[in-house]
């Protein structure tokens, strides 16, 4: 049997028997079904780029196989092979394995198959994972100085646009640090959802897919008004790739990776991510004695368990509470 792709070898008679007949439920059919579902549910799969890429790769390798006869060992061997060939991280291989499993899970939901060989493929060890970091007062000072120097380096007369964008970066950081919004929540925020009178920002795209409110302290309100005064808009990437962002999006940039890392390097701050602004936000509230239920509401945590991670940052609260046991004097 001739190969379906350049990556597949010529099949023997025995291998053809393993593949099954033309009417079998193939992996390709399942891939197509799952990809349609992913594209039709952007609120569930906000990343519309990487899942389809992984699905396409799985389809290329196993597409003509009978899905009910695919073995866990074959999937595991393939993942091991591509990891060695491309020097992929364990986390990347786990994502490919998870996509494989989701294809079969979806197939089971749609009564296409009743098996999931990918579920038995072990996950690769990724170690302790990403360590949450809290920004110290000194680090914040150095970071603000770096961002301010960038602003001062552009003349307001000769380089007004460059200066505006430099100011924009400082305001992005200010709002992130003092609102606790996740990156996607912040950069999808629209002016129509900013309510200065009620001091709230309505977030439509959140981690769990449900809208929530982010709360606006005075410093955040001032930063937002300054952003509005800058009057910057998101630009098209190119003539063939227009900007698809809403017209009234608050932030003129949808991606801060380059300038953010450059600023961290200049401020000599290591192992700190944009998402750690959110951890800093939560821990500072707890340190200030704010009740954990209030912190939960401010951060938009689905459960108090997520907020409890920050409880150890306020030992004074525990001591003050235990003071009821002191002897009366």
Structure described in brief:
With 329 residues, the protein is mainly alpha-helical. Helices cover 50% and strands 3% of the residues. It has 2 domains: 13-120, Tyrosine recombinase, N-terminal domain (DNA polymerase, domain 1, Orthogonal Bundle); 137-235 and 245-320, Intergrase catalytic core (hpI Integrase, Chain A).
Q: What is the highest CATH level, the class of the largest domain?
A: Mainly Alpha
Q: Which strand order do you get reading across the main beta sheet? A: 1-2-3
Proportion in helices: 40-55%
Report the biggest beta sheet as strand number plus sense, adding barrel if it closes: 3 strands, antiparallel
What order do the SSEs take from the amino end to the carboxyl end, as H and E? HHHHHHHHEEEHHHHHH
Helix segment tally = 14
Strand content: under 5%
CATH superfamily of the largest domain: Intergrase catalytic core
Query: Radius of gyration, rounded?
Result: 26 Å
Give the topology:
Elements: H1 13-19, H2 27-40, H3 50-62, H4 72-86, H5 90-109, H6 137-152, H7 160-179, H8 183-187, E1 194-195, E2 200-203, E3 212-215, H9 218-230, H10 257-266, H11 276-287, H12 292-299, H13 304-307, H14 315-322
Antiparallel strand pairs: 1-2, 2-3
Helix pairs in contact: 2-3, 2-5, 3-5, 4-5, 6-7, 7-9, 7-11, 11-12
């Amino acid at each position: 049997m001739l190969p379906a792709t350049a990556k597949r070898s010529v099949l023997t008679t025995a291998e053809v028997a393993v593949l099954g007949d033309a009417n079998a439920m193939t992996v390709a059919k399942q891939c197509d079904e799952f990809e349609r579902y992913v594209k039709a549910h952007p609120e569930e799969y906000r990343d519309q780029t990487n899942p389809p890429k992984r699905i396409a790769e799985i389809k290329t390798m196993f597409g003509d196989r009978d899905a009910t006869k695919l073995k866990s060992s074959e999937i595991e061997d393939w993942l091991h092979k591509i990891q060695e060939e491309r020097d992929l991280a364990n986390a990347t291989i786990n994502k490919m394995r998870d996509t494989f499993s989701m294809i079969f899970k979806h197939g089971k939901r749609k009564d296409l198959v009743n098996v999931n060989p990918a579920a038995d493929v072990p996950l690769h060890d990724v170690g302790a994972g990403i360590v949450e970091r809290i920004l110290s007062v000194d680090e914040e000072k150095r970071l603000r100085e770096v961002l301010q120097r960038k602003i001062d380096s552009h003349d307001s007369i000769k380089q007004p646009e460059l200066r505006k964008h430099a100011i924009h970066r400082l305001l992005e950081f200010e709002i992130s640090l003092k609102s606790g919004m996740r990156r996607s929540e912040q950069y999808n925020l629209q002016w129509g959802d900013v309510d200065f009178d009620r001091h709230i920002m309505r977030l439509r795209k959140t981690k769990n897919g449900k809208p929530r409110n982010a709360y606006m302290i005075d410093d955040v309100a001032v930063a937002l008004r300054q952003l509005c005064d800058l009057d910057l808009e998101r630009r098209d990437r190119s003539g063939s790739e227009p900007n698809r962002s809403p017209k009234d999006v608050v932030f003129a940039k949808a991606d801060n990776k380059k300038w953010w890392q450059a600023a961290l390097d200049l401020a000599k701050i290591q192992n700190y991510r944009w998402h750690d602004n959110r951890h800093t936000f939560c821990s500072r509230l707890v340190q200030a004695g704010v009740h954990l239920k209030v912190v939960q509401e401010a951060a938009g945590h689905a459960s108090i368990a997520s907020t409890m991670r920050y409880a150890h940052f306020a030992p004074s609260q525990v001591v003050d509470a235990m003071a009821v046991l002191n002897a009366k004097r």
